[in-house]
Amino acid sequence: MPAKKVVAIGGFRGAMAKGIIRPFFEAQGCVAIGWDSKDRGGPSPREVVAKADIVFLSVLPIAGVAETIESLAQFAKEGSLWLHGTSVQEPVGRPIGEALQNKHFVKRRVTTGFCHFKVGPSIRSLRGQSVICGFVHEPNRRWRKFLLEALEASKLKVVVTTPMGHDKLTAKSQGVPMVLALVLGQLLVKGCPSLPQVLQVAGPPFWLQMLGAFRSLGQPRVLGEILVNHPNSRRVIREAEEVLISINRACRDQDVDFLVRMAERIVTSLPKSKRSVIQDAIDWHTMTEGDLRGGAVSFIFSPEENKLGLLEKVLQSFSSRGLQKTSCLAKKTVDGGCQFYIGLEDPDHPEVKNACREIIERHGGERIAITR
Question: Rg of the Cα trace of the chain?
């Protein structure tokens, strides 16, 4: 039986390492070790990387990643794989790609590259998420096969590209949303007497827009690091300024048609089939959010009660009474239990209480209030 690969993770105590990187490699049968700046008296990075078949750096600040790689390259194991998960490949001032071609890597036939998981550390599954990866120095293509097969086995959407290609893609998919989040957030709080009241009045469509913004704003250090270090951030901001100036000009000139054409050009830049998928998702999320705000019942079940077929049995208690559902959402809880949200056409129907009572008597769980 072949020995298990050892993966050394830099930033071992960080949220991404604990929530994403370590579980990913352990799922491939690897043994995880690591180091972290938070550890006092722990093993030194050079001791850790010398033992590793795979080294994965998940560290901040972004501007220091290249220097960290350079300082450890001489201790790399012969024929190993070195990756980093940084959100920017060619940071302003010190490109990481240069460090990945260090002379020690070349001499020891070390394969180097990047593997940027486009998810936050709180995600519970990589299924359906995106990852951008690529290789900079590749003396041994078996590592490419190993990594791509592992990513595909995790059901990730994989994009393989160059460091420059990565930064071109993320300028739009990452930089633009972050700039929008900051602008949207600042516009909302500027002179706003009550942001919660604004969100309440706006309704589900605007609530959905805010989810994306708050997701970015909820990681302020990461947001700042990416925007400051990304080589295309200032170009994105200049383009945003030009767009805002043209919108302002249209409003000044009462030019409704200009804004209509602008919106139509954006929408029609997507194929009709893709627009249909997006519209279906918008409709579903809007309906679900509406139900959560005023027409849903919710149950939470323990890990012991969370058995295959539970949701079907819960829904049966409603359908057997002629109660029509408008939406349904199920999620796993942190402890391994589950929570169901069930939108009902008539949440005030007298039979709703009877259905809820039957569910708890037969299947356990607890009905909980929803606040939105």
Answer: 25
- Judge contact between 240 and 179, C-beta under 8 A: yes
Nearest-angstrom CA–CA distance, 289 and 205: 9
The 10 Å Cβ neighbour count of residue 167 is: 22
91 burial level (CB within 10 Å; 0-12, 13-18, 19+) = buried
CB distance 285 to 203 below 8 Å:
no
Instruction: Say which residues have a Cβ less than 8 Å from residue 34's Cβ, sequence separation at least 6.
Output: 8, 9, 10, 11, 12, 17, 22, 48
What is the pLDDT at residue 372?
62
> pTM for the whole thing?
0.84
Which run of H or E residues covers position 132? strand 130-137
The model's pLDDT over 85-137, given as tens digits with 9 standing for 90+, comes to 999 999 998 899 999 999 999 999 999 999 999 988 888 789 999 999 999 99
Which position has the token pair 């260090």? 102
Record the tokens describing residue 53, joined without a space: 């078949």
pLDDT at 200 over 80: no
Instruction: Supply 134's token pair.
Output: 């690529």
The span from the CA of 79 to the CA of 300, in Å, is: 49
284: three-class secondary structure by DSSP: helix
CB 69 within 8 A of CB 84: yes
Distance in angstroms (rounded) separating the CA atoms of residues 35 and 43: 7
Return the axis-axis angle of helices 176-189 and 204-217, rounded to nearest 10°.
110
What gap in Å lies between CA 195 and CA 202, rounded to an integer?
A: 11
User: What is the tens place of the pLDDT at every residue in 35-73?
Assistant: 998 877 778 999 999 999 999 999 999 999 999 999 999
> Tokens standing for 276?
């249909």
Q: What are phi and psi of 133, to 5 degrees?
A: -140, 165
Query: Between the CA of residue 132 and those of 93, 122, 162, 163, what are the distances in Å?
Result: 22, 19, 9, 10
Closest CA to 186 of 213, 159, 165, 207: 213
| DSSP helix, strand, coil percent of the chain (3-state; round to 5) | 50, 15, 30
User: Are 297 and 348 in contact, with CB atoms under 8 Å apart?
Assistant: no
